[in-house]
Structure formats: C-alpha cells, structure tokens
Amino acid sequence: MKLTKLTQSEAFLLQHSRKGVITANQLEKLGIPQRTTYRRCQPNGPWTHLLPGIVLLARARPTARQRVEAARLHTDMLGIVTGFEATRRYGLRTVPDDSLVHVLVPHTHRFCDKKFAIVERTRYFPEPVHLDGVPLSPPARAVMDGLRRIRQQDVVSAVLLEALESGLCTYDELAKELLEGSQRGTALPRATLAELQADIRSVPEMDAASLWKRAGLPASVSNVRLFDQQGRFIGMPDRWCDEIAMAWEVDSWQYHQRGRHYAKTLERNNRYAANGIIVVQTLPSRLRTDPKAVIAELRAGIKAAKRRPRPDIRVDSRPVRRAS
C-alpha cells in the first residue's frame, strides 16, 4: 500500500508499530522511503532515531516499554529481556534506575550492543516468562544477569535481599543460577548471597532479640507456640510479650501480597486478630536500616496492647526447632 501524504499516515503507521516503535524496513514496506525516514529523524523532525534502523514515531524520550521494543526489534524479535529491566518488571524496587535493556539471544546469532541495548549471546537460553506481553528471563536468571555487571556491594546486597524477601526468588533458585549459569562476574553476588542467607536465618533469634533488648521493652520470649482456650494452634511469633499478649513477626508481609507465602501469612494474621492478639510486623532489612522507627512501632504496639484486657492465650514454651 502506497501512501502519498505523511500527514494522513500517522494512525496507520502506529497501528503497524510496536508501542510506537518500528523499523525503517517496515516503514518502507508501508510506503515510507528510507530517505524520508532519515529526514524525519533529524533534530527538527517529528520522529526519534532509537537504534540502527529503528525509530520512534514521535519526537520524545522513549518510555521503558519503547526501549524494550526497540531492543527486541534490534535482535529480530529473538531476544528476551533479562537483567535489571526484567527485575523491574517483576516488581523489584531497589535495582539501579538506568535506561539499559539487557537481552539474551541464542549463541548462534550475532547481534551487537548498540546504545541502550545490551545483547548477550548465551548457550543457556532460558524458557521465557511472558509478562504484559514482554518475554522475560526467569526471575533468578534476571537477578543474576543484572548483578554480574555490578561492583557495588550495597547495590548487590539490596537487590538480593529484596529478591529473597519478596518471594520472587528462593535462596536455592539463586544458588542454582550461580552454579549453572555464567561464572563471569559472580564472585561478589556469590559471597553476598551466602552472607544474606545467614543473616535472614538469624533475624528472629539474633537481630530481633538484640533490638528488643536495646529498646528496653517488657520481657519477651521466642520460639513459643500460642493456643486459644480450646487448644487450637494460633501461631509461633518471632517474639512474644506474654504480659500483654503482643506478637512481633519479623517477616516480609508487605511483599507477601504478591509472593508465594501470602496465603499462609494471611491465615496467621487472621488467627491473631480473631484471638485479640496485637501483632507488629517488620521487614528483616529494617532491623538494621531503620531501627529507631522499628522501636517506635513496637512501643506503639505495646501501648495499644496495654489499653485492652489481656486475651486468654495459652503458651507452650517447650523448645521448638524452627524451620530455616
């Protein structure tokens, strides 16, 4: 189909684009000569040149999705998104805020990095996860592909911690990716993952107890099981203040709204509420990053618990070996 007036073709061209991104070859098939495409991408033109042979049908800064579409067009739609652009799409918030789009392609293809598009040829080409129309590498692969290019300890720690706390990845999935994937640039993520795993396991027994003691709060215990008047199990909080029947749970409740453990967390919290137990919930990372605020929240919980009669909660304080 030949078009004679560009001013009448914008809607037609957008219909054939990917979120407003299109190749010069496709434009030519639609009746726009490549010399015209080149002219319209000049500084005073209405379009924007993104990558070789790829344009945005607007004079604007491309959105993240438009950069993704451009990177995929650059790899003939063979590439799948990995690294930090993928982790952002999975919902992680601590990843570096950059405009790079890291894509994986099978090792038999030869595409090169161009501008914001990072192209990685790999023999370990994963089965993609499709999210909002974008093919992504599996979560653990995406996390490690991003971190292999980072040398800042705080960034590596923050991303790994959020990936674990959110339920996006398990420790075993990340460890397996480190073992089976590319070994390039994995020394720092490997060491950091081991340290974080030890920290996460020790939070209820060490960090939480230390913070409670430091705050001068009423006596509390850990590893006790709570039962109602009929002997039905309620829960086993990380810390329990028996004097006022207040529980402290150091877990990832904010992230569990989209994580795999949400149902169990919701059931536990419903049992607490049904039995009149005041519960304070804290992210493990905040014990170290924001201890003053955590202490203030605990004190507020204690104040609220003291204002109501203590519910009839039975405690079994026999030692319990908690799953790691």
Which key features would you list for this structure?
single chain, 324 residues, alpha+beta, three-stranded antiparallel beta sheet, three-stranded mixed beta sheet, 12 helices, 40% helix, 16% strand, elongated
Outline the structure in words.
The protein has 324 residues and is an alpha+beta fold. Helix content is 40%, strand content 16%. It contains twelve helices and 14 strands. The protein has helices at residues 10-15, 24-29, 34-40, 64-74, 83-90, 139-147, 153-165, 171-180, 187-214, 262-274, 286-289, 291-306, and strands at 21-23, 48-51, 54-56, 80-82, 101-106, 117-122, 129-131, 134-136, 225-227, 233-235, 239-241, 246-250, 278-282, 314-316. Strands 1-3-2 form a three-stranded antiparallel beta sheet, with helices on both faces. A three-stranded mixed beta sheet has the order 4-5-6. Strand 7 and strand 8 (134-136) form a beta hairpin. It is elongated, with a radius of gyration of 26 Å. The model is unreliable at 1-7, 253-259 and 319-324 (pLDDT under 50).
